[in-house]
Every structure is written in C-alpha cells, then in structure tokens.
Amino acid sequence: MKGRRILVLVLAVLLAATAVGGCATQGPPESAKPEPTPAEPVTLKVAVLRGPTAVGMVKLMEDAAAMLGEGVTADIQVVDSPDLLSSKIVSREVDLATPPTNMAATLYNKGIPYQLAAITSWGVNYLVTADPTVNTLADLKGKTVNVVGKGATPDIVLRYLLRRQGLDPDKDLTLDYTLGQVELAQSLIAGRSQVAVMPEPWVTQALMGNQQLKVAVNLQDAWAEAQQGKVQMAQTCLIVNREVAQAHPQAVAAFLDAYRQSLEWVTAHPGEAGALVEKHGIGMKAAVAEAAIPRCNFRFEDAASSRQAVEAFLKVLFDFAPASVGGKMPDDGFYYAP
Predict the structure, then answer these.
(1) Percent helix, strand, coil in the chain (nearest 5)?
(2) Do residues 198 and 215 lie in contact, with contact meaning Cβ atoms separated by under 8 Å?
(3) What does the buried/exposed string (b/e) look like for 259-283 if buried means 16 or more CB atoms within 10 Å of the residue's CB?
C-alpha cells in the first residue's frame, strides 16, 4: 500500500514536469522574437508668416534634425502675407501653420479642418510717437493716429482699448489708415507722422531711424489691464490639420515640443537668434531682430492652458466685428486635444 502511494506521487510529479515543459516550449525563444517595426518617417509641411512669427521658429529651422528626433522632419515655408498663408491652409497644402488667432477661428468656422494647438505670441503692437504730450491712450484725444489696416486686429484692439478709456474712436480722435507698415515706419522716421499704432519689427525699425520716437503705450499691457489681469492678448497661434494629427500624433507632438523649445531659446538668446534670422532670410537684419525680440512676447501655451485667453480675445473681436472671427465664436472642436 505504501509502495503504491509512492508510485502515484512519482507519476504525478512526472506529469507536472511534462506539463510545465510543454508550456515552456510554446512559441519561439526570446532571441527569435521579431523586432518591432520602426515607425514610418513623417515629413510635416509647415507654413509660417514672415516677420515676428517666423523669428520665433528660427531655432527650429536651424536645428530641425536634432530637435525633432528620429523619423520626423519638417518642411518649413516662410510666406509673405496672411492672404498667402490663408490660401495654403484652405487648400490643405500644409500640415501646420501660424496664422493670427482670429484667422484660425474664421477658417475653422468655414469648415477648414484645422485646430488651434497653441498660442505662440502674445501680441506685438505698440503705440509709437514723437509727441511729448502723448504718454497714455487717454492722451490721444484730439490727435491723429496712424493705424495699419482698417478692421484688422490692431485696429479693433485699439478701438476696444480707447472705449475702455472713455474715448469714442470715431469722434474724439482721427484714425488714419492710409499707410502700410513700411510706409508708416518711414513716415515716422521722417517726422511726417507723429503718432502710430504698429507691430514689430516696424516698431524697432522706426525707433532705430528716429531717436525722437518712443514707445508710449504697450498695447499688450493695456489689454491685460482691461481684462483685469486675467488674460493676455492671444494674438498668434499654431494650428494643425486635424486629419494629420490623428494619423501622426507622435510626429505632431515632436513638432509642438520642438517649437516650444525654439520660442524659449529665441527669447533667451536674442543676439544669436538675430543672426539666424538674417541667415534664414526672414526679412530683417540681425540687429533689428535682436532689438525686436523682447517686444514679440513669445511664449508657447497649448490649447488647453490658453483657451480662456483665446476666448476672451476672440470675444472682443466678435463684439466689434463678427466677421473678423468667422461670424460666430468657435466651438469645442476648435481646440486641439492630443
């Protein structure tokens, strides 16, 4: 009886060992497992406006391979005008672009499938004057102020800020829209114009050309004050083609991170960035770019963290001119969520 129990135990042990051994031999050995298939290389087509917007991307232009990582490249085109940029977005020639935020909203409201991925510049507009009596917006009463582009963002922002100061922009002062950016900078330098609202880098060029000129009002600071310090002016953004983002989320994430790094580097190294601006033909000399960079207010904030500022900015434009944001405030789908 005892011998029979021993025999049963031995057989049980042998069966267990066979079962374990059978499991161990299923499938190829570890060394024979196939290597994971590498991700297919992705080239992202990017359009950026010539001027301050392109300045913020100059480090990425210079060091794209190192900043984007393996398998991701960027074909960055510098375009000369908002109209040309809009055309490239509408035709879906590019995967990412850097339009004014209200242009992005307008295109989205027209059904163009691009989403706001980040705000990258928080305003570049300033009140420049040689008039010693003008130091605040309230001082503009009775003055003639040159503004580039009637109905454009700087015009709407100025009108909004003047009303916050109790001034009627159509009655209490004269707004002159006859000069473009280049002509206005030249007119200020020559002393033909005395007060103007203009963007960088034309502000810097005017200041360098006429030592009597000064920045009297930083419109970005005036905006923040009007918003009770809650939000800044979300003027320029980065948008991404929704279909491209869905198909290549890792490549898009790599680009967003690289662009963030580029903006931070440009802000921290204006001298070196200025040299790269001239090297890459972005439309200004190194010295101008270096002086202008601190007034370009570069900072990368993704769609989620910048949404409150974006909505506040677009609401002001919508209230003044609904067509400036596409006739309505954009819905939740406007904001890219990785």
Answers:
(1) 50, 20, 30
(2) no
(3) bbebbebbbeebebbbbbbbebebb
Which pLDDT tens digit goes with each residue over 53-71? 999 999 999 999 999 999 9
218 with 258, same domain? no
Are 270 and 290 within 8 A, CB to CB? yes
The sign of the dihedral angle between the CA atoms of 217, 218, 221, 226 is positive
Residues near 82 by beta carbon (within 8 Å), at least 6 away in sequence: 49, 99, 100, 103
Taking each helix axis from N to C terminus, what angle separates 303-320 and 101-109, rounded to the nearest 10 degrees?
80
Domain assignment of residue 177, given as a range: 125-226
- The last residue of a domain, from among 226, 244, 267: 226
Burial class for 164, CB neighbours closer than 10 Å (0-12, 13-18, 19+): middle
Residue with tokens 């060992």: 17
Which residue from 335, 329, 304, 302 is spatially nearest to 316, judged by alpha carbons? 329
Cα separation values, 8 from 3, 14, 16, 20, Å: 9, 10, 12, 19
Q: In this structure, is residue 195 part of a structural domain? A: yes
Give pTM, 2 decimals.
0.86
pLDDT at 230: 85
Of the three residues 202, 226, 250, the one that is the final residue of a domain is: 226
For residue 326, what are the CA distances in angstroms to 80, 180, 241, 318? Answer: 23, 24, 18, 9
